[in-house]
Amino acid sequence: MKLSDAQRLDWLRLIRSENVGPRTFRSLINRFGGASRALEALPDLAAQRGRVIKIASLEACEREMEGLARLGGALVCLGEADYPAALRTIDAPPPVISVLSRGDALTRPGVAIVGSRNASAAGLTFAERMAQELGDSGYTIVSGLARGIDARAHRASLRAGTVAVLAGGLDKLYPPEHDRLAAEIIETGAIVSEMPLGWEPRGRDFPRRNRIVSGLSFGTLVIEAARRSGSLITARFALEQGREVFAVPGAPLDPRAEGTNDLLRQGATLCTCAQDVVEVLAPILRDGIPLPEGLFEGQAAIPAAEPLWDEMELFGEPAPLSMAGHELDEEGAPPLIPPAASTREEADVRVRLLALLGPSPVNVDDLARLGSASMADVRMVLLDLELSGQLERHGGNLVSLAGPLATHSVPEKL
């Protein structure tokens, strides 16, 4: 299928209209046979239900398309040749996605790598290794451009090509400090969003993004996730989409491993190396992910809680895709308490290093590299921790936290 410019504009107007999400869009297209006719019928349909619906203006959508063109991006519609095949098969696929890309990353099989935003040094090192090795094996690494594991996976797979999915518009990066990383991703990979230009991401937009991260991927690998981590939302969507879920086991005393260890108990595939992923996905790559028969067919209903979209029920369609069972991250977790520091700069270094430490032994050289700290600063922080009985030294230049700090609570963000 190839849409004309006029049809593409109609699709954009329809999905940008008030109370029209992916499911309502599907119902309208199926009922009226096209976006243009659906736009004409929508006001009367809403009036029959005692509602007034705001249709996205032609001028606003033209401005969005012009702005996307200025960024060097493209608008891709569901069913078109450039629309990612794996994403097409999920429940409630985004009818329209905006893409910034100069590579072929979206045409290759994807593996999502997600995890803690406050990752340990061991977790970051493992994420880097997995992203590099899976990229070398022909996979595109997909993630959400978040801090921690996401960013490390993106950086490690820049050469092979990586895909970042945004919760806001393509011009509204979150977190904003990853603007340089995003620019590097575009050179060999892609940045994707279903949201309009100028859209500032809100809380419910992150689960929407997570369903696209897993939907673009044949498998999702979770590296370090607390029990209320946003990474578990991605794993839950992957399961509902019929995709493979992999989890990295972690130390029982590390809160950052509670979520991944729970996934393993629930049947996720244990992952200790890239080969664990490659072997499981090989037959799936051979057989492919089955596509639905029609453009919007084969959509399964999911029990509703708080919906991901404020969709209008028009024809008695199934309940909208929701966040049932997808709990958001808990904010306001107690901060880590680093050893005393004489200056703000020293305190910042200590906080960074303490966040990288956990019950799992990590190499001191990796601490310095991942914490952007000098070896002198690392040695000073480790000495303070050791003198207070909070550090355990192992052979091979390895260290880990001991005592109360070994089970510190690490705040997570979406």
Model description:
The protein is α/β, with parallel strands linked by helices and 414 residues long. The chain has three domains: 73 residues, no CATH class; 198 residues, Rossmann fold; 64 residues, Winged helix-like DNA-binding domain superfamily/Winged helix DNA-binding domain (Arc Repressor Mutant, subunit A, Orthogonal Bundle). Helices cover 40% and strands 12% of the residues. It contains 15 helices and twelve strands. The chain has a nine-stranded mixed sheet, sandwiched between helices. It has a three-stranded antiparallel sheet with strand order 10-12-11. Helix 1 runs parallel beside helix 3, helix 6 runs parallel beside helix 7 and helix 6 runs parallel beside helix 12. The longest helix is centred in the N-terminal third of the chain and has 16 residues. The protein starts with a helix and ends in a 13-residue tail after the last strand.
Overall CATH class of the largest domain: Alpha Beta
Radius of gyration: 23 Å
Individual helix count: 15
**Percent of residues in beta strands:** 5-15%
What is the element layout, followed by pairings?
Elements: H1 5-16, H2 22-32, H3 35-48, H4 58-71, E1 74-77, H5 85-88, E2 96-101, E3 110-115, H6 121-136, E4 140-143, H7 149-156, E5 162-165, H8 179-188, E6 190-193, H9 205-215, E7 219-223, H10 230-240, E8 244-247, H11 258-265, E9 269-270, H12 274-287, H13 344-356, E10 362-363, H14 364-370, H15 375-387, E11 391-394, E12 398-401
Parallel strand pairs: 3-4, 3-7, 4-5, 5-6, 7-8, 8-9
Antiparallel strand pairs: 1-2, 2-6, 10-12, 11-12
Helix pairs in contact: 1-3, 1-4, 2-3, 6-7, 6-12, 9-10
